[in-house]
Design brief:
Layout: H1 17-45, E1 49-54, H2 60-69, E2 82-89, E3 92-98, E4 116-124, H3 128-147, E5 157-163, H4 175-202, E6 242-246, H5 266-273
Parallel strand pairs: 1-3, 1-4, 4-5, 5-6
Antiparallel strand pairs: 2-3
Helix pairs in contact: 3-4
Transmembrane segments: 20-38
Organism: Panaeolus cyanescens
GO molecular function: GTP binding
């Protein structure tokens, strides 16, 4: 009896060249779509908002007005959140959120951390030497919130603005010199005051009387490496990189374009455009 022997055919025998081309294109298209979706999710997870936080009268609302409308009008201390959108490029915009600086309202920024790409802590470089303790207390809340974020949540960039830098300019100094002076003053005062808070906490003492309303707190967020005897330095902060910029606006002035002029808000525009 003769037995028929089945012959195994190659798996590709049933595919024509045109079928293979179509299948390859389908796989390539699938990979491209998957990559685009992944990149979009990563971009959205970083948020797309600029949070303006800081003490009252630091100039946050004037900043928002100048960024969004190209002009700054006289303002009063804000008691509610304000927001608007700014255009960074023809294809990209960003929401700017102004958080009130009043002690009872300032922690509202935490409600917007999930959508924040940047937190800009606005300081008045002209008065920081007088109210440094209160400003540092406010900043401590921000540092604590950032270092307390879960690993799954993107940490926003931290930007500290030495605002109203133009008030430090004299007839014998240039804008560049006044900007450098403003940044150095703000950075020095804040590092000194934050170090006071860190020392008080490391000694087992609740921070009391170092800020407004005799606040007592055991907040973290002030770690700076493990070097013995080191003091608080923004350059060594465990929470990540901190960028300092000097800014200013002319209240009551109007520019034909939102990004007009040298100095002023130009450093901030450039920072946001590079994100």
């Amino acid at each position: 009896m003769t037995h028929a022997t089945s012959e195994a055919l190659p798996a590709v025998a049933g595919f024509t060249p045109s079928t293979l081309v179509i299948a390859s294109l389908g796989v390539a298209l699938f990979l491209i779509l998957a990559l685009l979706i992944t990149n979009r999710r990563k971009a959205s997870s970083k948020g797309n908002a600029l949070l303006l936080v800081g003490a009252p009268d630091a100039g946050k609302t004037a900043l928002l007005s100048q960024l969004a409308y190209g002009k700054s009008l006289p303002t009063q201390t804000s008691m509610q959140m304000n927001s608007s959108s700014i255009v960074l490029s023809p294809q990209r915009s960003m929401r700017v959120i102004d958080i009130p600086g009043h002690p009872r309202l300032r922690t509202q920024f935490q409600e917007y951390l999930s959508e924040a790409r940047v937190i800009a802590f606005v300081t008045d470089a002209n008065t920081i030497s007088r109210n440094g303790a209160a400003v540092a207390e406010h900043l401590h809340h921000v540092l604590h919130a950032l270092t307390s974020l879960p690993p799954s949540q993107h940490q926003p960039e931290l930007l500290i603005l030495a605002h109203k830098a133009d008030l430090l300019k004299s007839s014998s100094t240039s804008s560049a010199s006044s900007n450098a002076l403003a940044i150095n003053r703000v950075k020095t005062v804040l590092e000194r005051e934050l170090e006071k808070r860190r020392v008080a906490q490391s000694g087992g003492v609740n921070v009391e009387g170092l800020g407004e309303e005799g606040e007592r707190t055991e907040m973290g967020g002030l770690d700076c490496g493990e070097k013995v005897g080191s003091t608080f330095k923004f350059d060594e902060w465990d929470g990540g990189e901190v960028t300092f910029l000097a800014t200013s606006v002319n209240v009551g002035s109007h520019s034909d374009t939102e990004k007009d002029g040298e100095g002023g808000l130009q450093p901030l525009w450039e920072f946001l455009e590079q994100l």
